[in-house]
Amino acid sequence: MTNPVLVEVTRGPLVESRHRGMVIAVDGDGRTVFSLGDVDAAIFPRSACKAMQALPLVETGAADAYGLDQRMLALACSSHNGEPEHAALAADMLALAGRDVSTLECGAHWSFSQPVLIDQVRAMDKPNALHNNCSGKHSGFICAACHAGVDPQGYIGYDHFIQREIRDAMESLTGAALGHDNCGIDGCAIPTYAVPLKGLAHGFAKMATGTGLAPERARAARRLIDACMAEPFYVAGTKRACTRLMQIAPGRIFAKTGAEGVFCAAIPEQGIAIALKCEDGTTRAAEAMIAATLARFFRDEPEIEAALLAEATTSMHNWNGMHVGDVRVTEAFGRA
Amino acid sequence: MTNPVLVEVTRGPLVESRHRGMVIAVDGDGRTVFSLGDVDAAIFPRSACKAMQALPLVETGAADAYGLDQRMLALACSSHNGEPEHAALAADMLALAGRDVSTLECGAHWSFSQPVLIDQVRAMDKPNALHNNCSGKHSGFICAACHAGVDPQGYIGYDHFIQREIRDAMESLTGAALGHDNCGIDGCAIPTYAVPLKGLAHGFAKMATGTGLAPERARAARRLIDACMAEPFYVAGTKRACTRLMQIAPGRIFAKTGAEGVFCAAIPEQGIAIALKCEDGTTRAAEAMIAATLARFFRDEPEIEAALLAEATTSMHNWNGMHVGDVRVTEAFGRA
């Protein structure tokens, strides 16, 4: 099927660009409550599934043994801006396991946020692996391996203990078989597996509700989601969509983006989760789509609905500050 | 019609993201020689039509009166990186008209190129309007207005002399009526008009061949295209697609990108021009599409064809330098 146009970018009186995509919301039993486009298609979740990838950190007992606080658990699920607080907290996590930046295998990059990048350039010659947007996740991997008595060296490899644990957890949550046939390498060097969008949403609905999960996994899942909702700055950072969305309804919305236009979210109190992908991989469209989808579930709370719908439309201004157009969702989302 | 998928982004063994778009190549008489997707759709050319917008600079006699050299004419057609050479040359152009940076009305922004941005942050507190990627075009506007005896203040306005001159030239070249109904505001604050993709290509084919143009316009058009081909660094900058494409066949390929996934090109010796747009506005896809389309016209010159096809596929590496996937054109382009 051809995916529908879900986001339009306007300029003056006309539509300039169009983004297609697929969106699904499901409950803990996997029942579809909202759907647009080809939701059976396999997509790479990329960083949107970091909360799933953090399960071994809690389930191995490492989080308790090292005394990780909620900020650290949120950082383990994050794609952060590389702001000083993010880099420092990743270093703190590594120190609890007796490690430091040299154990990280994620590589280094300047912040994707221009204001943060400018601050970084003024403060340092070059970034290190602590500034990588995935450093919290990787620090969590290292904590889990060290606590389990496994050498963390090579932890990014397909056959390492931590990647096998993640693969098992994600297979169970998403219902998809994961292996070399649907495996790619992520930006931070670990394996990433393409799964049907519907399975990805169902996995997050299980995490948010505990439906069908063993008690320890249900507790670990909810603990990670609660940590993200409690510390949204540590899931992304200043002005980032994940952070803003979670701040709109504190403790009630979980939201996590992934590269190439992916977004996942959950509303635990309603027992539903959402997964979506912009077909062409564009972040601006995925951000509008997740906000509009979330808004559908807050129609009884006009202030929250309005705040989410405001996130679903972004005014674009030129270098002189003049309004030139908007990024906005299409009628496919209905009232929302 | 639904535009076809023209570019795929792979990760490991799978396609991760897909870009749709439309492409047309025409000759000086407007005959279609290659076409994909809905080429009658109106699109905003954005910066891809800067060579058309520079016609008044030459046709008013300003370029000769102020002694603008080929680098300056190229810069007048450019979306440059804001490298020191670009900013300095824009200042030189303004000085020839007795003006300086304070006359520019394009606003200021940090370079879109990360390496250049980093150099800028280390060299200055903040960028000024000379660093705006459109400063060469705006300096050309100011030269044209000053030479014509018109106050340049307000030159970005719809009713200013220079914008009327541009509107007249673009209507004549593209065959499209331009007015408020299809007018938006560009990133640099001047009017931009949506025109059918086919008309945009025909306009560039007329510029490259002179077909149907008055002798003065034909000379001015060819002079601008020749200047861009002679000084490709001043059309874009270090590592930029426009610059690289023109360097592959020096003096034989003209290429100019525009925001939101637009690319225009011409091969004057073959009498053809190309216009394309990625439906979703993504630059990586537009760059692959223009390289693959240009390659079709160099099948008799294997070295040039191979160099262009190499530009049509971009290997993606993660922060550790591992190959993770490719941006590549689809079978829609045939052998190319």
Automatic annotation (TrEMBL), chains A, B:
E.C. no: 3.5.1.1
Keyword terms: Hydrolase
A Pfam family that the UniProt record links to this protein: Asparaginase_II
Top-level class of the enzyme under EC nomenclature: hydrolase
GO molecular function: asparaginase activity
Ranges that cross the membrane: none
PANTHER family, sorted: L-ASPARAGINASE, PUTATIVE (AFU_ORTHOLOGUE AFUA_3G11890)-RELATED (PTHR42110)
Name of the protein in question: Asparaginase
The organism of origin for this protein: Rhizobium quercicola
